[in-house]
């Protein structure tokens, strides 16, 4: 049975059938279960309970538990971004803007969640604080996806209703897809970055994971400080594109089956689905051949810390950051220019379409043992990381928005469907995703 989402829990509270304290007690039990080892790097349950009891009734989040990625400042606590290189970091003097907005809306922070060191990987491995196990498979410990690994597991297991994270190349949508929950990456400019450790100032997006699309809408409205324009347009009113180039390459059997089954249901519901070439995706390799934004911009931030604490970095993360040392100023300027031109080409190719549909990632979650720290597994790790980021990172380069929602059958490992488009189509993507979620939840899995 799916866990209750924030909306249904809030309704029970407002009807007098439950309290925020009940929700916090259940969240604490989930967080402290043995299978949730490595999900949180710190917790504050007693303080959270006191805050929940002081929360004014009728606030949007009603004192319900939220988790925050160890990337965000939280007043009185040190932000370590999943790294021991920042073990002596000073405590924050104020909340990150996004966290302040959640708290003002009645969200109660229960703890800081584990993550890939400095948010630089889609796999979710952390050699310093351990790796949270994906809750989808109790028999085989599988990766949760990254970099917002603990955030995803906290939401999937009931330890939080909203998992605050970030998305630079897929760090919200990848773990959402692999853990079977919802992850929405909004247009980057809509949510404030202040108080979050940067990875790429060009691509970073502050956003969240939830258990339902309607919860994703609410979380986005709070974080962005805006109202989503709602639409009751049926699926038959949407014109959807399927990208032929790259997005469907090398899908494993479970992902391919779930994706095709979902497309069939959408078509049967009347959605107008057209396959488009979108060959511009192939150009990204050439555009980023000198290293890309993430390497260059992360190196600019980490350069001095690497000189002082480089030996304490995860070697896989350090290797990727140090690639940015070789980018020349003129290459960085040309990269921005090439991206602007590329965005215009993709926008032109997608003119007339409401959204593009693709598998969020081309695989189900592999076993942690296959990509765990160790030089003998580095090749498998980097191959897996590249595949996980392949589809999602296209949206970041597009300066776009995207939502991943589960589309697998009950007897399958989680698979994510990604609905996406360019900048400022957030409301269309959210409204479409509400329709898709309703269809999939009401349809027979066969």
Automatic annotation (TrEMBL):
Transmembrane segments: none annotated. One of its GO terms (molecular function) is catalytic activity. Coiled coil: none annotated. This is Amidase. It comes from Ramlibacter cellulosilyticus. PANTHER family: AMIDASE AMID-RELATED (PTHR11895:SF176), TRANSAMIDASE (PTHR11895). Residues 34-430 form the Amidase domain. Pfam families: Amidase. Gene3D superfamilies: Amidase signature (AS) domain. InterPro entries: Amidase, Amidase_CS, Amidase_dom, AS_sf.
């Amino acid at each position: 049975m799916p866990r209750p989402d924030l909306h249904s829990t809030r309704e029970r509270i407002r009807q007098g059938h439950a309290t925020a304290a009940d929700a916090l007690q259940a969240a604490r039990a989930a967080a402290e279960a043995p299978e949730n080892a490595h999900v949180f790097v710190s917790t504050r349950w007693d303080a959270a309970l006191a805050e929940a009891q002081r929360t004014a009734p009728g606030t949007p989040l009603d004192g319900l538990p939220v988790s925050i990625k160890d990337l965000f400042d939280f007043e009185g606590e040190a932000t370590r971004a999943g790294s021991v290189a920042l073990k002596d970091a000073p405590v924050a003097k104020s909340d990150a803007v996004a966290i302040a907005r959640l708290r003002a809306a009645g969200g109660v922070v229960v703890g800081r969640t584990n993550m890939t060191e400095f948010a630089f990987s889609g796999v979710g491995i952390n050699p310093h604080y351990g790796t949270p196990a994906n809750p989808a498979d109790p028999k085989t410990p599988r990766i949760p996806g990254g970099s917002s690994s603990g955030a995803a597991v906290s939401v999937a297991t009931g330890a939080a209703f909203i998992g605050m994270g970030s998305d630079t190349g897929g760090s919200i949508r990848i773990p959402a897809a692999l853990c079977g929950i919802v992850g929405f990456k909004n247009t980057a400019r809509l949510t404030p970055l202040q108080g979050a450790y940067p990875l790429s100032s060009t691509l970073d997006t502050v956003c969240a994971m939830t258990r339902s699309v309607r919860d994703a809408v609410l979380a986005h409205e709070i974080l962005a400080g805006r109202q989503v324009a709602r639409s009751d347009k049926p699926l038959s009113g949407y014109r959807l594109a399927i990208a032929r180039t790259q997005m469907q390459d090398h899908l494993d059997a479970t992902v391919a089956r779930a994706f095709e089954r979902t497309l069939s249901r959408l078509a049967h519901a009347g959605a107008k689905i057209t396959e488009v070439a979108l060959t511009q995706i192939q150009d990204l390799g050439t555009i980023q051949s000198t290293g890309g934004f993430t390497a260059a911009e992360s190196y600019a931030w980490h350069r001095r810390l690497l000189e002082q604490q480089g030996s304490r970095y995860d070697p896989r993360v350090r290797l990727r950051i140090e690639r940015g040392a070789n980018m020349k100023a003129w290459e960085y300027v040309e990269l921005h220019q090439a991206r602007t031109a590329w965005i215009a080409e993709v926008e032109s190719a997608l003119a007339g379409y409401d959204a593009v549909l693709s598998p969020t990632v081309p695989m189900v979650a592999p076993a942690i043992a296959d990509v765990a720290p160790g030089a003998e597994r580095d090749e498998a790790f980097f191959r897996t990381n590249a595949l996980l980021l392949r589809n999602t990172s296209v949206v970041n380069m597009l300066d776009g928005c995207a939502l991943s929602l589960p589309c697998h059958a009950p007897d399958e490992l989680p698979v994510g469907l990604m609905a996406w488009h360019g900048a400022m189509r957030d409301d269309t993507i959210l409204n479409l995703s509400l329709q898709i979620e309703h269809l999939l939840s009401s349809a027979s899995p066969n």
